[in-house]
Amino acid sequence: MELTQLRYFAAVAELQHVTRAAERMHVAQPAITKSIQRLEAELGVPLIASRGRNIILTEYGCALYGMLQEPLERLNQIPDQMQLLAHRSACTLHINVLAASNAVTEAVIAYKHDHAEILFSIMQNELAQICDLSIDTLTDQQERSERSANSVSFKERIMLAVPSHSIYSSLNAIDLRELRDEGFICLAGNRKFRKICDQFCLAAGFHPKIIFESDSPATVRNLIGAGSGIGFWPEHTWGEFGEDVKLIPISNPQCSRELRISLHPQDSARLTLVHPFYHYLIHYFKALFEA
Q1: Which of 68, 96, 198, 226 could cross-link to 131 by cystine, CB 3.0-4.6 Å?
Q2: Which helix (H) or strand (E) holds 33?
Q3: What pLDDT was estimated at residue 143?
Q4: CATH code, 62
Q5: Angle, helices 29-43/18-25, rounded to nearest 10 degrees
C-alpha cells in the first residue's frame, strides 16, 4: 500500500463522490478510480460500491476508513509540527557547561529576563561535539595553546574554604602544606575541578584526606559551614558562601584555574542568535570577576 492510495481512498470515503474527491486532491478522476482499484486488488476485498451516480462504502471500506482517520490526521500535522520544531530550534541556544555552572545559570536567568523568546538547552557532557557555546576549565598547556578569536579566558583564584570558627579563619593566607592532616570536603572525583584541586595537594607534597565528596557545590559549602571539614572554593563563580564559611587565600602553591568561554559556530545563520549571548556572558563574567 502506498500513502497516496490511502489518501485518495480517504477522500472518496469522506465525500462519497469520486469526482469531488479528485477535485480536492487536484488529480484527474481516472487516477482516483485506478488507485482505489489497485488498493482493492492488494487488500483482496471491495472497498466501494456504486449506487446510481454516487458511491457507498462497503463493510470493508467503512472499516478501512475508520482505521485511517487518526493516522492520516497525524500525518497531516507533520508539516506544522516540523515548522514549530524548526522555529524552536532557531530560538534555542545549546550550551555545554563543564565549569562555573552556578555563574552560567545565573547569567542565563538574567539574560532571559530581557530575552524571554530565547530558549536554552544546557548540558554537562565532556564528549559533546555539537553546541553553540561551551564553558570549560583549561587543564594543560595544550589546551591553553588552542586559543582562538572565538574564545575568552578568565583566571580565577582557588581559595581555601574553612568554617568561620576554624583555627584558620583569622589567617590572611595559608600554605597548603599545613593542611596535610586535615579532612577535605570536595566535589566527586570525576569532576575536573576536583582533579585540579588534587593536583594542588600533590604539589604541596600530600594526597588529600577526603572525608566527604558530593556532586553539589552547595552541599560542599553547607558541610564546611557546619564544621565537618575544609575544602577548595573558586573565588568568584560558585556564588555566595554564607557567614558560616570563610575564604582564605592559599599562598603556596599558587592555586588558580583558567576558565574558557568558547564560541562554536556550527552554522553562520545561528550567529545572530548566539553572538549576543556570547558577548553578554563575557561581560557578565568580567563584572563578576571585578566585583
Answers
A1: 96
A2: helix 29-43
A3: 57
A4: 1.10.10.10
A5: 110
- Cell numbers given for 279: 558577548
Contact 188, 221 (CB under 8 A): no
Residue 198 to residue 193: CA distance in whole angstroms: 9
- Contact between 29 and 18 under an 8 Å Cβ cutoff? The reply is yes
Residue 212 pLDDT > 60? yes
The average pLDDT across 78-94 equals 86
CB 107, CB 284: distance < 8 Å: yes
The secondary structure of 61-109 as a DSSP string is HHHHHHHHHHHHHHHHHHHHHHHHHHHHHHTEEEEEE-S-HHHHHHHHH
Which has the higher per-residue pLDDT, 147 or 86?
A: 86
| Residues whose CB falls within 8 Å of the CB of residue 145, separated by 6 or more in sequence, listed in order | none
Domain that holds residue 210: 93-290
